[in-house]
Specification:
By secondary structure, the protein is of the alpha+beta class. Helix content is 42%, strand content 29%. It folds into three domains: 48-79 and 277-346, conserved putative lor/sdh protein from methanococcus maripaludis s2 fold, CATH 2.40.420; 84-90 and 196-274, Efflux pump adaptor protein, beta barrel domain (Elongation Factor Tu (Ef-tu), domain 3, Beta Barrel), CATH 2.40.30; 93-188. The protein is rod-shaped, with a radius of gyration of 45 Å.
């Protein structure tokens, strides 16, 4: 009897084990499906959508505040394209020396002309006396005539010397500076330069730069002091080029006592007479991706889109931009990297979709 009971209990235990494994085998697929459904239910919602070919990121105002996503409204601005170049403060030693020699030659000419006028009058007087019954001899008249010829020859030589000095000055300093230097009375420009109230700067501009006009100006900055910007007024073309920098050379005058002869300066000058209208993109709004610069524009209270911007014209605290972004548009100045991450997170294939 006990043996039969043991057999029955053993058969029951065997059947229980078989039924357990049957349930495990057939319930595995349903269990996996239920687990996957549960994971999908707690998956992070997708905030990225495509609207008319534009990727739109939806972020609620509450999430924006929590993530510290801030925006700034763009303001209109005008900008003139400019280029950077270099220049040097000139020494005026040769100009002053040529001016001294020129004025000395002109003074000599005036002395000779005075002597010539006297000798002409003396010759006329002696000639009259000679014709009046030979009151003076022919020899005296001839000497007076030779004095006139000598004075005229000296004047011609002095004038030629003065002309050569002026031509040499033009070769080195140009027509405008020569006019200032050959004037008996010092011009305001020359007086300021000689008295060290101003400096003359030779600037080298690119060959494609626009020709400066009389009222134009540039900004010069000493290379040793990048933070000090000094305005400089256009004077004239410079006839001599820079031996180290190829380009078109011009003279500019800066009223300052900070610069010294021989100092090197960097310059910023306009490359076009046209003034462009656009907006200033703050530096904090720019993000870099795939080698390009972008900003996130706020389209509405909870929508953002990424837009390309140009970073060719740098201005104070940002970049001048012409394009689809207009004055009044809001761009993200804090949290743009979060939006970029959110945008490209949606492009990563979910492993559950495999």
């Amino acid at each position: 009897m006990n043996r039969k009971l043991a057999i029955i209990i053993g058969l029951q235990a065997f059947l229980i084990v078989v039924m357990f494994w049957v349930l495990v085998f057939y319930g595995k697929d349903e269990f996996e499906a239920l687990t996957q459904q549960s994971e999908e239910e707690i998956e992070t919602p997708n905030r990225v959508a495509n609207q008319d070919g534009t990727t739109i990121i939806h972020v609620s105002p509450a999430t924006q505040q929590q993530s510290e996503i801030n925006t700034s409204v763009l303001k209109s601005s005008k900008h003139q394209a400019s280029t950077s170049s270099y220049g040097s403060v000139l020494s005026l030693d040769s100009l002053v020396d040529l001016r001294t020699r020129y004025l000395a030659a002109k003074s000599e000419i005036e002395v000779l002309r005075t002597a010539l006028a006297y000798n002409k009058a003396e010759f006329s007087r002696l000639q009259t006396l000679n014709q009046d019954d030979k009151n003076v001899s022919d020899k005296v008249v001839a000497v007076a005539r030779s004095n006139i010829n000598a004075d005229e020859a000296k004047i011609a030589a002095a004038e030629s010397s003065a002309k050569n000095i002026a031509d040499n000055m033009r070769q080195l300093w140009g027509e405008t500076m020569t006019q200032h230097a050959t004037n008996n009375n010092k011009s305001e420009l020359l007086q300021n330069l000689i008295s060290n109230q101003a400096v003359l700067i030779q600037v080298t501009l690119p060959f494609d730069a626009i020709e400066p006009n009389e009222k134009s100006s540039i900004t010069v900055t000493p290379t040793a002091a990048p933070g000090q910007s000094i305005p400089a007024i256009y004077i004239s073309r410079a006839p001599v080029s820079n031996t180290t920098i190829q380009g078109k050379t011009y003279f500019y005058m800066a009223k300052t006592k900070q610069l010294r002869a021989g100092m090197q300066v960097s310059t910023i000058s306009p490359t076009s007479n046209k003034t462009n209208e656009g907006v200033i993109i703050p530096n904090s709004a720019i993000i870099w991706f795939a080698g390009k610069s972008w900003v996130y524009k706020k389209n509405s209270a909870d929508k953002f889109s990424r837009m390309p911007v140009a970073t060719e014209s740098e201005v104070d605290n940002g970049w001048f931009h012409q394009g689809k972004l207009k004055a009044g548009d809001a761009v993200v100045t804090n949290g743009a990297q979060l939006l970029l991450s959110e945008e490209f997170k949606s492009q990563i294939t979910n492993e559950n979709d495999d």
